[in-house]
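Q: Fold this one first, please.
A: Sequence and structure below.
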Amino acid sequence: MHLTPQHILLAGATGLTGEHLLDRLLNEPTVARVVAPTRRPLAEHPHLQNPVGPLVELLPQLQGRIDVAFCCLGSTIRQAGSQEAFRAVDLDLVLAAARRARELGARHFIVISALGANQSSPIFYNKVKGEMEEALKAMDWPQLTIARPSLLMGPRNEFRFGERIAAAVMRWLPGKYRGIDVCTLARALWRLALEEQDGIRIIESDELRRLGR
């Protein structure tokens, strides 16, 4: 378990999970600095470094030591506008963040993938998530943690009728298929960051719920 002050990179700090994770990181006594590049400015904090602009442009400019990197980037095809735009965020941008984190010295990369991620899946969303996972594995990280949450439950800035219906159903499903509260996920991600376990670890949603209690 890490005891020395940590320097953290957080990609996706304005998303549903990223917001909760950022709040937790900034209140952890073992976190010395959080680098969170975003398109819009975040509230100031003495431990927060917040470059503002398009992430693809900011990543090469990031400087300083990074110990652990979190990637909470994620969209939907509807949000992105096309399959190509979705792939640019959920695959290309994730990999760009991982490469830059590695260049800055990070030894542990923690990424949010998705339940059912599989590069051979006939479902486009799951296929892209699976391709992302395989590409990260090929980077040969000292420690790679892949979190596969089920449907995220929590307050959103936008109304998604389909997700409201799905959440009402998935709240009662068994095992890894049950929806997971975003606060629970954020707590689980931080606990995973504290663990030193070389190699690749894939964490399904039921284990994420357990870790985040």
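Q: Good. Now the second chain.
A: Here it is, same layout.
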Amino acid sequence: MRLLAFASFLTTFFFTVDPAYVRQLDEWHEKRVASLKREDGWLNLAGLFWLKEGDNTAGSVSDNSIVFPSGAAHTGVFHLENGIVSFTPATGTSVTTDGVALSGKTEIFTSEKKPKTLQQGSLKWFIIKRGDRYGIRLRDLESENLKQFHGIERFPVAERYRVKARFEKPTEAKTIRITDIIGLVSDQPLAGTLVFELDGKTYRLDATGEGKLFVVFGDKTNGRESYGAGRFLYADQPGPDGTTVLDFNQAINPPCAFTPYATCPLPPVQNKLAVRIPAGEKNYGNH
């Protein structure tokens, strides 16, 4: 009886979680899931096509240089020249931007302006730039991936993975080198380093971001329990005492866990933690 009572005490002491905190996390997670399902979310991505200089024909049949998964046989021609992308719809094909049909060649991307979003039926697309490459990011508002999405499994909520972190701001401007999943490398401004303790050991994570602090991190759950290429975590800027909170229960999968058409950053080597963090989102899908 004493052994059972002691076991019950340990369970209560170590594993009871504040119900208000659980409700708060559940509400946060509902908003997170809703953001994935929005029209500008990650679940409806249907293609990422890199452009070559000059003309790039696009449509759903194989004689195009860019083959869309659905839509008109011949949608139109993308023209890339000196960092400027224009689009000409194919004859007899209706392509719109902001609800207005294009009547001829239209500039849709320059470095100085927000890219135009074009639409044909359930397909929408716009141009992205990664390094010196320009690509078409295609969405399908009737995507099967979106229709088949039924949520994200999470680790059980554990308050021990909500930790206070000391924020070390660099004394001079520094950058951290970030490689993304397609191999592009960029130097991002280092906002600072978050220093925290877990089970008596000290860990450090470099963060970027001017508003919310943004951390791309890896841990020992990656590959089996969580997404193999790491996860994302956001934190508030430090308060007057120089600290903030890292809540790993809010660790999320990168877009690449949901679609093969994203270009996600990978954790820099210094952000790969030599410890399991069984908190936040578990792995999703096979991307």
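Q: Anything worth noting on the second one?
A: The first helix runs from residue 2 to 15.
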